[in-house]
User: What shape does this take?
Amino acid sequence: MNRLWIVPMLLLAAPALWLFAPAVATPALPDLGYRADYDPRYPGRQILADEPDGDGRIVEVIGDLGAARRIAILIPGVATTRSNFDTGLGGVVRRAPAWQARRLHDEIIAGDPGAPVAVIAWLGYDTPEGVRREALREDRAAAGAIALERFVEGLVRDRPDREITLIGHSYGSIVAARAAHDLPAQVTDIVAIGSPGMGVPDRSALRTPARIWAGSAPDDWTRRIPGVRILGVGHGRLPADPDFGATPLPCADVQGHDGYFVPGTSSLAAMAAITRFGALTPTDAEAQSTKPSH
Assistant: This one.
């Protein structure tokens, strides 16, 4: 009997086996070497890490990290690389982590010029190349979570008085979710914006005492993603779904998947308030969510 049919069947089965297999932290990347001094390649900027290999990794601080008591860490999503860290995917600057971090820091300082706050744009993991197979799974997020945990531990090791807010955009919210249970108590808030899911059915499954916030623009394409997770594929219920149990982040005036850091939006004001105060009262949220659209 001719058994050559087995070969194409195996070729078809291999991708399926990978797609539905349990998530593992891959690719395994060497630890970033974080430094406190200024990088001469980036005049006037505070670059904590810069790794050009592959798609590259880079971490930038806005503000005085040494004096900061509260820190916001921005975690970007798919297709973010070292090469578009400043310019944004497709040359759209509002997608650039460096630009987003500056807008958040500007918003905080506008409300309190002396606030002991720093904002970090953290591209410390290898993001999925696009909305493809890798983005349907959480292998990249699992690897990113390990790197994020080590980074946060370094921030609080000598400064246990610090409080940290994580802001995960899109796939970056999955990185934050995978790390949540193992992060130190100094992480008081985790914000998910434009999230395709956090890999869990509800807020309690994150197993963290941190406050969980979630928001999604009315026309964000991630709203159309089915909130399911089957054999490791998909990321579960959208955190902006009321049944998830997160505290709503006002986003009614945000446009698109990448508009959460645009000046004047309620989402930017809310993230600045959470970073500054570690809280956003329901009254504040209601007032901001009714701001007129731009």
Notes: Residues 1-18, 282-294 have pLDDT under 50 and may be disordered.
